[in-house]
Amino acid sequence: MNSKDPVAELYREGRKQFIEWVPGGGARLDALFHTAPALGELAVGVVYGYLHQRPGLDPRLREAATFAAIVAAGMVGAPLSVHFKTGLASGLAPGEYTELLLQVSAFTGFPRAVETADQLNQLFADADMPSPPARTPRAVTLAFCEAVREGHGAFRISPEARALLRKTHQFQATATAADRVLLECYQQDQPVPRGVLQVRVDGEQIVAVTLFSPE
User: The Carboxymuconolactone decarboxylase-like domain covers which part of the protein (predicted)?
Assistant: First the structure.
C-alpha cells in the first residue's frame, strides 16, 4: 500500500480501531479479506477509518444504526457477527441488541428478524453471555426510579437523590454506556432539570447512583 494513498491511511486507522475493539481483530480481518484484500482496505477504511472517526454520532449510536441496517438488509453472517462484537466494544448492552431487533422487525418484517435472532442465539452463546439478556440499562433504571417513587427499591441511595426522584414529574433517561444511564429529572414545565443522576447498572441490579445538582 502506498503510504501517501488516502485509502491506505484510512485503512491503517480503521484497522487500528477494529483491533482495539475486537480481540484477535487483525487475524479476523486478514481471514475475512484473504481473497480480496483491496476490498478489505476499502471496507475497513470507510467504516472504521472514516465513519467511526466522524464526531456527529457517538460510537454506540453509530453501531446501533449499523446493526439496524444489517438486519434490514438481511446481511446475516459475517457483517452481523463483526458488528455484534464492535457494538459491544463501543458500549452497546446485550439487551439493547434484542430491543433493537424488536424495533427493526416492525419495519423489515419477521422473516429477516427471525433469521437474525437465530444467529444472535449463537453469538450470545459464543460470547458466553446469558440468553435472553438482562433488560437494557435504561429499562432497569426507569424501573428503579418508579420503585423509589413508590417507596420501594432495594438499593440504598442518598436522601437527596431519593427526594429528587420522588419530586420529579418527568425523567429523561439516556444510556451512555453498557452499564451507565444519565437521568435528567425535570419539574413540571421547567426547561432545566432540577438535578441529574448518573446510574450504574450491572445486569438487573443498580450498583451506584451519583447525584449532580445545578448550582
Answer: 50-117
